[in-house]
């Protein structure tokens, strides 16, 4: 039977704001320290590798989104171009990995504002507040994301200015070459591992694609929004990474709990530290806002195809949002915040997101020439890059990611078996027939 559709309410500016809120908030305040632990002075080389892989993925995603402007992102693309199993694995990787990222962002928000004993309660309050905003409609989500992005960019400009003062004024960095001079002696496995971790910070442009059913003129707006958001994020990350490495040096950066706060402290800008802390908290909220919206839409798309429980496909009649999916995801995030140590969340999220984009790149390779917007070789390079970065992630992240994929595959096999048994006993149930013209 026909499924209700989400309303197309997002224009170019709003789509860019949601993508930037996901990218800039998701990584810039948290990812440089673990990346520096892996790469040392080769951090910027790792950033360049991550940016190239992300560029290829962004091109493939934009190309596919123009052809399939529906909710679900790479889940939908994989299902349409490659088959049900690749689509399911892409969607499952996204939902599980980004749910962990939501919990990490909530905890990041709380860590910058509260003492340890209050961090988990404050993080839970943040999840509830952001879920409430999302449930009021996608345009409200976009307005809040716009305000957050503007504020965070201002804070990051302050950090870059402090880093420039330290680097060129000799205040803290001791002349550390921000471009990794001498990095030929670096452990290239460590540099590639840092690229895999830094890729976590670029993944937000997928949020634009997962909201494809709510974008006006999607074939034109989505590719433009992805391109703009990605270009801005690359510039911001390069400037902030150079500032942090130059001001702190690789060893101090690697050991830092709040590296961007340490950058302003390094030049004696004590007045700026509270501003950066608030900016970090706001950025984490922006990432949480966009992440919850994207996961909800992917869960909606999967539930429409009976890949997840059917109630997750329900759309609120007034606010036009997948309210059941968003509430369910928010509850899972709250449980994770309350119970789990998420120190490995970045690596785990990178594993899921890289597999998600692997499917997107392979799907883009299969598109015929009239649908192509980027060279097929770029999509192939993106697929290879995803595989290389997955293989170089920390072992614990790979093991956890494989285990979660196995759980998802087992769920799908069991659920399909149950539905087949029901059909054999009494014919197709009310939700067993074809939907939306798809078998």
Automatic annotation (TrEMBL):
GO terms for molecular function: transmembrane transporter activity. It comes from the Bacteria. It is a multi-pass membrane protein. PROSITE patterns: TAT. The chain crosses the membrane at residues 12-33, 39-66, 87-112, 118-135, 147-168, 188-206, 226-248, 278-300, 346-365, 377-393. PANTHER family: AMINO ACID TRANSPORTER-RELATED, MEMBRANE PROTEIN. GO terms for cellular component: plasma membrane. Keywords: Cell membrane, Membrane, Transmembrane, Transmembrane helix. This is Amino acid permease. InterPro entries: AA/rel_permease1 (IPR002293), APC_superfamily (IPR050367), TAT_signal (IPR006311). It is found in: Cell membrane. Pfam families: AA_permease_2 (PF13520).
